[in-house]
Amino acid sequence: MTRSVFVINAGSSSLKYQLVDVDSGRALAGGLIERIGETTGEAKHEAPGIETVVERRMISDHEHAFGWLLQQFDRHGPSLDGAQLLGVGHRVVQGGARFDRAVRIDEDVQQQIEDLAPLAPLHNPANLQGIRSARATFPGYPHVAVFDTAFHLTIPPAAHRYAIDARVAAEHRIRKYGFHGTSHQFVSRRLAELLGRPLDEVNSIVLHLGNGASATAVRGGRSIETSMGMTPLAGLVMGSRSGDIDPGVIFHLHRMAGLSVDEIDTLLNKRSGLLGLTGTGDMRDVLQAADAGIERAVEALEIVGHRLRGTVGAYLAHLGRTDAIAFTAGIGENAARVREVALAGLEGLGIVLDPERNAGRGERRISADGSAIEVWVVPTNEELEIARQVADLVG
Amino acid sequence: MTRSVFVINAGSSSLKYQLVDVDSGRALAGGLIERIGETTGEAKHEAPGIETVVERRMISDHEHAFGWLLQQFDRHGPSLDGAQLLGVGHRVVQGGARFDRAVRIDEDVQQQIEDLAPLAPLHNPANLQGIRSARATFPGYPHVAVFDTAFHLTIPPAAHRYAIDARVAAEHRIRKYGFHGTSHQFVSRRLAELLGRPLDEVNSIVLHLGNGASATAVRGGRSIETSMGMTPLAGLVMGSRSGDIDPGVIFHLHRMAGLSVDEIDTLLNKRSGLLGLTGTGDMRDVLQAADAGIERAVEALEIVGHRLRGTVGAYLAHLGRTDAIAFTAGIGENAARVREVALAGLEGLGIVLDPERNAGRGERRISADGSAIEVWVVPTNEELEIARQVADLVG
Ligand SMILES: Nc1ncnc2c1ncn2[C@@H]1O[C@H](COP(=O)(O)OP(=O)(O)O)[C@@H](O)[C@H]1O
Ligand SMILES: Nc1ncnc2c1ncn2[C@@H]1O[C@H](COP(=O)(O)OP(=O)(O)O)[C@@H](O)[C@H]1O
After folding, report:
1. Which 3 state secondary structure label does DSSP give A326?
2. Cβ atoms B189, B201 nearer than 8 A
3. Which residue puts its alpha carbon closest to atom 7 of ligand 1?
4. CB atoms within 10 A of CB B122
5. What are chain A's domains?
6. Ligand 2 centroid from CA B231, angstroms
7. When you count CB atoms within 10 A of the terminal residue's CB, does the N or C end of chain A come out lower?
8. Quick check: A128 and A110 in contact, CB under 8 A?
9. Which residues lie below 8 Å from residue A128, measured CB to CB, with a gap of 6+?
10. How far apart are CA A343 and CA A338, in angstroms?
């Protein structure tokens, strides 16, 4: 008998869903509805054993999107009735200093997610729209919010506070929240399993490298430091985001280049990172260009590698003793060359890759046998992690 | 016979000078003129064997300040004629991507320092005023510019480039320049002497912790990474500067707190760091408060320590193999507690302090005998470094 959770990730104009079998971890169905509210939306529904449905049509709002997806389950399957639905899990980006774990959604929780909107103006309102529509669509089921930030609430003040005016920070809730928490939690837990050791004895560094990228230092299953900050702009070099940069650059750009704050925001969030350095934000293209000897792609990889090495070094210091490093997400799982530059020259710190293992595929150890710190590729699965947290809470 | 250099550090409303015996390294005289241009200036002149002169009086401009100091040498000594002056050394903050070493000043160099003013709007124009006045005051001598940034020009692109739009960066000369270079150079060189090894074989981390603070990774006498950025705002927690912070915080403060760019600039540069966290920017007061158990001072020290440990870890990674770490400047030389928190928990990385040595005074090793990486306190002497570079160039 299946026990399943319906997992929802709602953006301002998109809706991603997955029906997850919590016990096997398998996706029973999934889909993506894009350009909601525009005249030409696109909707996709897929499941093992059925032909993928793709429709181009106008989808006016999130409620309409849910109507569409219910129809697909009805028409093409799988049957939601047969899926033994335990509840609905919602990815919520910003849980602030309040939510340190998944929580059952009620009016009060919705209000709190709304109160946190100033800290995630692009995400929380959209997540909330998804929650409202989903509660109308699946009225009989428990709904659970799973926060991107929750896993990082164990980060101590020494690491989550910025060195700014303490009253200003308190008034405007300025601190490091961190993101990708669901992924870091999933991967660090899986890593402990793979090492065959109890979670609370394993110290690890998780490098989640996707379009967004972040690193987390995990001590005994708890996040103690992460590279994103109050917003997802800080830290590593990303697809289109700069990651860390001297804040003085912003003042300089404002004064000398005459850019407005909004323009600089767009510059650093949307036109920087790989995109700003090379003209493409897609790592596959950057790697291809680097292989072809294109200078700016080669240099971009060096910048990416330098930033990663510095972060790994910093986290080795924060952890004191590190058992393993895990790479995950689109780049982390698939780009051997990035993993190589990320750890190049760290042999003296006990980190030695095995080139052949690094060139392989799938979940595996990629460090050499003599490496004091093991290195692994661990595919992430945020939907499964959300489903499990929902099941734990309501199952 | 003495060979001396007159060293000048000109701020917009201040003038610091020192007459340095380049061979012995001793200061033959020194002074500080403050609040130039205001109605109540203050001027001090001191030298071994003479009573310190302190005058409160109006000093209208830098030329006037030079007039005053010449008078003091005339009246109270020491005699400038007897000092066998080789030349005059000027501290210049921003040398851009152009000046990788000290350079003899001519009209062309002055023009280039002026062209770099947009990158150091508070400093280069003042440095230039000092240069102009000094050339008028000491017309017969070679004048040399010694740049805070020069030592860091060896930092490779992977470390000095930000991950932003490459054209914007090129157009506005946005990159990491780094500062305190004269100090980092002096200390890393002295450290190699103390280790009894050739400079080009020593890898070190220098922690310059004063009101401004920066860390540098030095490989074989060359800077390969530093914590300050395009401006001196980036990196470590400082007296009144935040150091690193999620750039997204700036956008948030602008939108949510309604602060202007100038106000945020002031907040991060003048009201942050120790001052913002505790109410005082002076580390002595913070340490006293922490000893008295005042919570916000204890927490500030933890934030300072966390940032330092992360930086040390990052530089261990960048260096691959590290021989020694040196603490310098006001805090680095004098605050045993800060050195302790900076390296706490790094035993696993081969760094072990000896508490008794750490509690001592003066230039010395403070690591335990078994520490794989040696740790030293090395008092900095930027005036002497400037004097030596002048002597090397013109002597
Ligand atoms: N085979 C591959 N080799 C290199 N990079 C890859 C590969 N597959 C995907 N990527 C990269 O992964 C990134 C997207 O990762 P992903 O985790 O899907 O991002 P996100 O979930 O943050 O949108 C893109 O930069 C893409 O180029
Ligand atoms: N004995 C001491 N113990 C602790 N901190 C000290 C001591 N002496 C000086 N400091 C600190 O050193 C800092 C100033 O360092 P300094 O190198 O003179 O700064 P800068 O040259 O950048 O202005 C101040 O925070 C001061 O409190």
Report:
1. strand
2. no
3. A334
4. 14
5. 4-147 (3.30.420.40), 198-382 (3.30.420.40)
6. 21
7. N
8. yes
9. A110, A113, A114, A117
10. 9
DSSP letter assigned to residue B367: B
Is the CB of B331 inside a 6 Å radius of any atom of ligand 2? Answer: yes
Cβ density class B184-217: b for 16+ within 10 Å, e for less: bbbbbbbbbebbeeebeebbbbbbbbbbbbbbbb
- The partner residues of A34 in beta bridges, in order of sequence, read A42
Alpha carbons B365 and B223: distance in angstroms, whole number: 22
Beta strands B53-57 and B41-46: pairing type?
antiparallel
- Backbone dihedral angles phi then psi of residue B320, each to the nearest 5 degrees: 80, -50
Residue A52 DSSP class? P
What is the side-by-side strand order in the sheet with A203-209?
A222-226, A213-219, A203-209, A324-328, A374-377, A364-365
Cα A68-A70-A73 angle, rounded to 5 deg: 115
**Which helix (DSSP H) or strand (DSSP E) does residue B41 occupy?**
strand B41-46
Query: b/e map of B366-384 (b: 16 or more CB within 10 Å)?
Result: bbbeebebbbbbbbbbbbb
Select the residue from B246, B269, B302, B349 to test the A interface by mutation, using most A Cβ atoms within 10 A: B246
Q: How many angstroms separate the CA atoms of B370 and B317, rounded?
A: 21
The enclosing H or E element of B233 equals none
The pair of three-digit structure tokens given for residue B380, joined into one six-digit string: 């900095």
Indicate whether this complex's ipTM tops 0.85. yes
Selected for mutation to probe chain A from B124, B179, B251 (highest A CB count within 10 Å) is B251
CA B311, CA B314: separation in Å to the nearest integer? 5
For B209, the token pair is 């912790």
Q: How far is B344 from chain A (nearest CA, A)?
A: 9
Pure H helices in chain B: 62-76, 107-115, 124-137, 157-160, 166-171, 181-195, 248-256, 261-270, 273-278, 283-291, 295-319, 329-334, 336-343, 355-359, 382-394
Q: How many residues does chain B have?
A: 395
Q: Which two tokens stand for residue A86?
A: 């335990």
Q: What is the pLDDT of residues B245-298, one digit of tens each?
A: 999 999 999 999 999 999 999 999 999 999 999 999 999 999 999 999 999 999
Cα dist. A102→A99, A227, A288, B5, B9 in Å? 7, 22, 40, 67, 58
The answer to whether residue A265 is catalytic is no
User: Which strand ranges, in their side-by-side order, compose the sheet holding B213-219?
Assistant: B222-226, B213-219, B203-209, B324-328, B374-377, B364-365
